[in-house]
Amino acid sequence: MKLIVAIIKPFKLDDVREALNRLGVNGMTVSEVKGYGRQKGHTEIYRGAEYVVSFLPKVRIEVAVPSEQADRVIEALSTAARTGQIGDGKIFVTPLDHAVRIRTGETDSDAL
Amino acid sequence: MSGRAWRRVVGTALALCATVSPALAQTPKIDGADTAWMIVATGIVLMMTLPGLALFYAGMVRKKNVLATMAQSLAATAIVSILWVMVGYSLAFTGDGALIGTLDRIFLAGIGMDAISPLAPTIPEALFMLYQMTFAIITVALVAGSVADRMRFSAFVAFSALWLIVVYVPIAHWVWGNGFLGTAGLLDFAGGTVVHVNAGVAGLVAALVVGARRGYGSENLAPFDLSMAVVGTGLLWIGWFGFNGGSALGANSRAVMAITATHLAACAGALTWIALEWRMRGKPSVLGMISGAVAGLGTITPASGFVLPWHAVIIGIVAGSVCFWACTWLKLRFKYDDSLDVFGVHGIGGVTGTLLAGVFAAAAVSISPAAPAGFPGLLEGNPRQLLIQLFGVLATGAWSAIGTLVLLKLVDRVLPLRASPEDELAGLDITLHGEALQ
């Protein structure tokens, strides 16, 4: 199993959810986060006071999938989240040792 | 009837009015229309502070200080109102002493159902007292903006009470209560000196005494929610119709002329401020639009009721320019942390407007039975008026500066003015009031 963590532009969330649904991904966890990469931040000016805002709002998606499905999910996710502009985000993939569905006690692939 | 006959009838009627009016003005009599308008004006001037100024200010501070900032407007309203009926009104608006009024109306003594103040001869004195109370409230509440984010509530409560009596009340008497500035002929229709120069200078002194916010100039101190400030500006703007229009003290043409001038100056101020921003910084900001509007409103205040509508447009343009300069250059140049630009907008605007009133005053607008010649300014061949205006600005500014400095130092000995570094970091909402926005 793989845990796929994607940081994307907030307005791309619906596109990504639809793309993953089409692949049969049954669930995901979404958080509102802030951060920066190459996009850096932006400058805000209030009555002449300039503030550099380093951390921009992003959405962080966590999806756990069977290993054989991982490549297709990554592909669909990056296609759906891409605008071609700087700040589109990143995808991180890590091995996932174990999973449990709390209600039934099912484990691993059955729990996804 | 022939045209000539009509003219003769109208001429006779006008002549009759001219001879009768002064006699009427000398007999105080409560007028229904004047009273109705002044009740409305009193309500909407109170609305300028609650919730107008509370929203305007709270929208510009950080999220951790929103409630603490609103608390200052609320507390100012409550404290000033009680002290005003106890002693403030009497000291400001009775008698004809050069420096201070009398104690004749202490605890509203003598203000019965039929009482009428000679200063407002067509409305109940209780209404005049209430109307002037709303001015005192907003002036005290305005001062708090310069020390937002860091002044302790207990110190502010003590300071407000003392400042009202020591600084506001004498100045109101000097200008509007037969004191030496009013007698000298100072033109201040609705509070360029009493409210705006006074609050602006006090704000500057307070910002210097209390010191800059932690992280000023290095950390991000961006406003929490400018949409709240926009709502607050709208309420201030409408309320200003009562502030300036109500200063005619009656439902009459002069009130309408003052409202016209007020609205036009606000519009011209807003447009000027964003035009400068657009040109110099590339973007017209919402904060710029509301700052320009409030600058226009504050600046037209002393001149409204004396000037023509097109003068108000010019005054609004000047207001937008000089207040923009004060907030974006002057403040950075001298490195004082006037958090919400009380001095930059109200102080500078009040000085500018008071001087421009002396330039543009048109006698035709201010003709009344009490002043049959009206009040001409520089443009109508009365350059001396400008000197009187300058004298008014200097006198009120000096008293406000000295009084504020002494009172702050006094209060600080008993109640520290400034929140501890830990409290300032955690935010005043939770540390001073035990509440917080989630």
Question: DSSP helix count of chain B?
Answer: 15
Radius of gyration of chain B: 22 Å
What is the CATH architecture annotation of chain B?
Orthogonal Bundle
| Number of beta strands of chain A | 6
Largest sheet of chain B: none
Mean pLDDT of chain A: 93
Query: What's the domain count of chain B?
Result: 1
The chain pair with the largest interface is: A-B, 9 and 17 residues
In CATH, what is the homologous superfamily of chain B? Answer: Ammonium transporter AmtB like domains
Number of helices of chain A: 2
Low-confidence stretches of chain A: none
Please describe the structure with a list of short key phrases separated by commas or semicolons.
heterodimer; A: 112 residues; Alpha-Beta Plaits; two-stranded antiparallel sheet; 2 helices; 20% helix; B: mainly alpha; Ammonium transporter fold; 15 helices
Question: Could you characterize what this model shows?
Answer:
The complex is a heterodimer of chains A (112) and B (438). Chain A is an alpha+beta fold and 112 residues long. Chain A has helices spanning 13-22, 70-81; strands at residues 2-8, 29-35, 42-46, 49-53, 56-65, 89-95. In chain A, 20% of the residues lie in helices and 37% in strands. In chain A, the strands form two sheets. In chain A, strands 2-5-1-6 form a four-stranded antiparallel beta sheet, covered by helices on one side. Chain A has a two-stranded antiparallel ribbon with strand order 3-4. The longest helix of chain A is centred in the last third of the chain and has 12 residues, at 70-81. Chain A is elongated. The model of chain B is unreliable at 5-24 (pLDDT under 50). Chain B has 438 residues and is an all-alpha fold. Chain B starts with a helix and ends in a 5-residue tail after the last helix. The longest helix of chain B has 31 residues, at 384-414. Chain B has one domain (29-433): Ammonium transporter AmtB like domains (Ammonium transporter fold, Orthogonal Bundle). In chain B, 68% of the residues lie in helices and 0% in strands. Chain B is globular, with a radius of gyration of 22 Å. At the A-B interface, strand 3 and strand 4 of A face helix 10 and helix 11 of B.
